[in-house]
Structure formats: structure tokens, C-alpha cells
Amino acid sequence: QVQLVQSGAEVKKPGASVKVSCKASGYTFINYPIHWVRQAPGQRLEWMAWVNAGNGNTKYSQKFQGRVTITRDTSANTAYMELTSLRSEDTAVYYCAREVSSWIDYWGQGTLVTVSS
Amino acid sequence: QSALTQPASVSGSPGQSITISCTGTSSDVGGYDFVSWYQQHPGKAPKLMIYDVNNRPSGVSDRFSGSKSGNTASLSISGLQAEDEAEYYCCSYTSSYSYVFGTGTKVTVL
């Protein structure tokens, strides 16, 4: 069965960086794009970026351009999301998700990133 | 890219029907038939309910349906049940090769 398993919760200080991993199983990793979506406490879902797991091409939301980098390791069936220059407003649950055609069908369990001094 | 606009809350009694709107622009909702809807219960990951405007994934009740007119997409729930109480988000592909979510709608079953 399709599974996306994310790395554990992180606590970071303002100005630091965080890297979240998303390990895929149950399907051919390179055939489906991976998206990253975040949700601040009590707030809406916010689309951040996606990566073509086959060729590594990426697209970032303008809001995060310059601060976020999405990569993937096809040998490990794993995608990564790195966010730099963290501020308190980046405190959120970060989800990875698999895209099929034009919609998301599977989501990771989410990773809570807390930014606090 | 601004968030798609949804009503903050919609409510209905058990058995009733409700509709949630999702308004964007010609660069997203109006420009593509790539609108999807997600249901999210507190503390859980979102669940796909509708894709490509009006298609239901297997396993999703036929009480859920989607439509689109111009720059506005809609999600309808008929025969409202207690388990339908959740947050609902629309999502659209955009002309910038990116995606955008809606502001979210809290559905309350009275």
C-alpha cells in the first residue's frame, strides 16, 4: 500500500534551518510528483512547492521562493524539504503528499516544526 | 498567488444538503478543470473527496459532488451526516505551474 512516512517533530530557533524528509513506499517513486503543504496552528492549508520525482524539476510558491529547497533521492525513495531563515510564523505542520495527474491522493502524517527562541 | 475564497463556515441539519463555494480567478479555477476538494478532521491529514472538478475517488460517498461555473467551483454534500463535520478545502492548479488552496470552510452538523 502507498505510504509516505515523514521525519519527526523539530524545534528550531529563529534564523535556523530545518530539513524534513518524506520516505515513499508501495509505488514507483519516480513516477509521481511530491508536493509540500504546510498548516500553521488553526490556519488553512498552504501550498509550498512540488518536485518531479523523476527528473528533479521543482516549482516553488512565490511566498517561499529563496527560502525553501525541495530535493529527492531516488535511491532512497525519499523527498526532502529544507526551509531556511526560520521565523516564528513558520511554526506549522508540514506535509508531503503524492500527486496523481492534478490532485493529491496520499499524504504523509505531517511533521510539526516549532520555531521558538 | 492569493488563496481561493471560501465561506468561513456552513452548517446544516442531518439529512439536509449544503454547498460550499470556492472562488478564484481565470488564472486558476476558471482556467483549468483541475479543482480538487479535501476533507480534514482535527489533527488529521487531509483526505481527497473530489478531483478534476466533479470526479469522486473510489471509497468516497456519492453524497459528495462537485461542479464549476466560471471562476467558482462548488462542493455539495447531500444527506448531511454527523461524520461530515470537518474542515473542507478546495485546491486548484494555476497558470504559474503551481497550486493554490482555498481559505477553508468549517462544516457544522447541527
Tag the structure with descriptive keywords.
heterodimer; A: 117 residues; mainly beta; 11 strands; 0% helix; B: 110 residues; six-stranded mixed sheet; three-stranded antiparallel sheet; globular
Q: Report the C-alpha radius of gyration of chain A, rounded.
A: 13 Å
Low-confidence sequence ranges of chain B? none
* SSE sequence of chain B, one letter per element: EEEEEEEEE
SSE series of chain A: EEEEEEEEEEE
**Main sheet: strands, sense, barrel of chain B:** 6 strands, mixed
Count all strands of chain B and give the number.
9
Relative strand content of chain A: over 45%
Main sheet properties of chain A: 7 strands, mixed
Rounded average pLDDT of chain B? 97
Strand coverage percent of chain B: 35-45%
Uncertain segments of chain A are: none
Instruction: Note the gap between the termini of chain B.
Output: 35 Å
Number of strands of chain A: 11
Give your account of this protein's structure.
The complex is a heterodimer of chains A (117) and B (110). In chain A, 0% of the residues lie in helices and 53% in strands. With 117 residues, chain A is mainly β. In chain A, strands 2, 4, 5, 6, 9, 10 and 11 form a 7-stranded mixed sheet that branches. Chain A has strands spanning 3-6, 10-12, 18-25, 34-39, 45-51, 58-60, 68-73, 78-83, 92-100, 103-107, 111-115. Chain B has 110 residues and is mainly β. Chain B is 0% helix and 44% strand. Chain B has no helices and 9 strands. Chain B has strands at 9-12, 18-23, 35-40, 47-50, 64-69, 72-77, 86-93, 99-101, 105-109. In chain B, strands 1, 3, 4, 7, 8 and 9 form a 6-stranded mixed sheet that branches. In chain B, strands 2-6-5 form a 3-stranded antiparallel sheet, with no helix packed on it. In chain B, a hairpin with a 6-residue loop joins strand 3 and strand 4 (47-50). The N and C termini of chain B lie far apart (35 Å). The mean pLDDT of chain B is 97. Chain A binds chain B through residues 35, 37, 44-47, 50, 59-63, 95, 101-105, 107-110, and chain B through 1, 3, 32, 34, 36, 38, 40, 45-46, 48, 51-52, 57, 89, 91, 93, 96-104.
